[in-house]
Amino acid sequence: MADGEGDPGVFTATALPEDPRLLPTVTNAFLGTRVFRDILHAAGVYSGAAGDTHRADVPSPLGLRMAAPGARSPTQSFTLNTWTGTFSHTIQSPGYMATHQLFAHHSLVHLMASSVTIRHLDGSTHPVTVQLQSLFVPQSQDLHLSSGPDFQGAHYIYGQTLVPEVEGGPRPTVHMLWTPIPQSLTLGEEERERCWQFLTAVAGSEEEAKRSYSAGLSLAAAGSLHHSHVRAWAALRRGCSVELDGPLALRQALHGCLYYLLSALPPRDSPGVPFHGISPGGLSNGTRGEDYWGHVFWDQDTWMFPNILLLHPGAARAILQYRIRTLEGARRNAREQGYEGAKFPWESAATGREVCPEEIYGAQEIHITGDVLMAFEQYYCTTQDLKLFQEDGGWELVEAVARYWCSRMVWSEEEQLYHIRGVMPPDEYHSQVDNSAYTNAVARRSLNFAAGLARDLLLPVPEEWEERARKIKVPFDEERKYHPEYDGYSPGEPVKQADVVLLGFPLMHPMSAEVRRNDLEMYEPATDPAGPAMTWSMFAVGWLELKELQRAWSQLEKCFSNITEPFKVWVENSDGSGAVNFLTGMGGFLQVILFGFTGFRITRSGLLFDPTFPEGITKLKLSSISYLGNRLEITITREEIRMEVTEASWDPPACPLEAVLESGQRFPLWEGQSVSFPTVPGWIQRSPS
Question: Which positions fall inside the Glycoside hydrolase family 65 C-terminal domain (predicted)?
Fold first, then answer.
């Protein structure tokens, strides 16, 4: 297997992985499929009630495969190009080359396309015939489909999902148009080269499906269909560019993570299109029994969101709007469990009602509600987007979460503290525990944020929010100077995944460096080595914080056992089990680079930085970090940090910024002017001038 002759963003192989789950995905904000698969998924289109809710399988004409019958020893290659967002399969034989390309159009999000190009080589004029193998049948186990009249040469089917998520609820409609696919294609003896294009448009309305198909046909006729996708995708990649000088495997992993995660985001120019959240395996996966049925977990809010926020705050806002749209379902979840406010579901689909197939998680893994609110807090601190909170439903969500936490706590007369009892912490090896350190700490953070935001919005602050935040118990062992995972936790007891270590980051729960170290020392050997992929990233961030660079690198290296070849598809567990295209693990990995190597920490007063690199990494360049309406290019080496505001928004106007070093030295950050200073700790803040 060769990797694009050293290009870290191009993954090429001469054979496909044996496990089809490890094939790469092509996805945009609305459509997704795995290459060579006969189904695709559309965002927000679920079928099945409650715990059986899963992504509805839409039949896909895109899963075709080229074959060259009778060809003498053809050579084949398969390439995922993360720079162009395109998968290709090439067959080369004496006298000709055939290339099949597949992509999900990044700006026309209801359109996916493939093309087959056959070209004569070496002056050959023999006719060339390529077979197209397809398993496509226009029917689905999840949709009641009917045929409609052809449109501009495309076949047409439409229908509804079979079972609504909640009784009496909506059943999403799917309309699909596609170019008929012949069994073979022939390049005539007089032709040097020919390209055949096949479009598939999928939307929630006939009008949108036809509009998207017609737009695709027009671009194809002009010869610019693929170019228009590449242009839109490249603009996204440039706007979210992260580059580092370091080992090839690390750079390949970085570009793979960026490709799969950015594929899930809405394009920058589609604010009116509702976004449906990001599931652990992405939109391409999530059929019944696979990849958590396509449900949305804390994986989105805790593991993926912080990266998206720094690189693409518009997409971060769309994620928060998904949670706002499902707030009514979260209120019903709380009421049904006897609590006030809103309890977000452990597993969410279209309505915000709990769709977890196993009741214990939905009932007990309540930290999800605080995880959702932490994403809102990070967004507020980074953007100061008051409109989201004052006009678009954000404040109602914040208030509902605060009310939930207050109603979920009970007062302990013995300890004179508030308790949260009967929960499952992030460590799912334990359930029905009292005072999970992580759950209680995230509840405290929720209440503190709600109180602070109320003040900013000039709203009254309920006294109980601050009182309960002050008096909630977060277990701490005074003798050993570490945080027990919950009341009664015994040191060394096995832990499934990152739990208490999350108190240091991302929660930034107040603690000394000694306690931070003790938490890492206590839980690193106790954590299941076969646990989910994102875990080791958080240990790496912790050790980077403490400048233990070798220990940080050894934790980060563990992630590589979850990255499969040749297309850098992540698996949830290192033995290959669990979700595939595991965006959660990729999100954790990216946080090591975006928050660990940089030392970035999002606070109310500023964006802290304290860079540190493990051995072998010499430079990190972030081309477009967003903060308070500014886009900053930040380049970090071991000796120097260079910053420049490359763009400042006008509507609303960006806040002028300055960089402040721990020594007190200040550097105004003006648009178009680069400043540099030694690689030391500091922060970026609103300039007082």
Answer: 601-647
- Containing H/E element for 519? helix 513-523
Phi, psi of 249 (to 5 degrees): -60, -35
CA distance readout (Å), 455 to 377, 401, 446, 449, 451: 14, 17, 14, 10, 6
Digit-coded pLDDT (tens) for 626-680:
999 999 999 999 999 999 999 999 888 999 999 999 999 999 999 999 999 999 9
C-alpha span between 109 and 226 (Å, rounded) = 13
Do the beta carbons of residue 127 and residue 238 sit within 8 Å? no
**Number of neighbours of residue 18 by Cβ within 10 angstroms:** 6
Q: Are 128 and 96 in contact (CB under 8 A)?
A: yes
pLDDT at 3 (0 to 100): 40
391 Cβ neighbours under 8 A, 6+ residues apart: none
SS3 of 276, please? coil
Catalytic residue (choose from 191, 208, 290, 428): 428
User: Measured on CA atoms in the order 496, 500, 503, 505, is the torsion positive or negative?
Assistant: negative
Write down the number of H helices and E strands in the chain.
Answer: 17, 32
Confidence of residue 271 (pLDDT cuts 50, 70, 90): low
CA separation, residue 549 to residues 285, 503, 636 (Å): 36, 20, 16
Are the CB atoms for 464 and 406 separated by under 8 Å?
yes
User: What domains appear along the chain, each with residue ranges and CATH number?
Assistant: 11-232 (2.70.98.40), 243-596 (1.50.10.10), 619-686 (2.60.120)
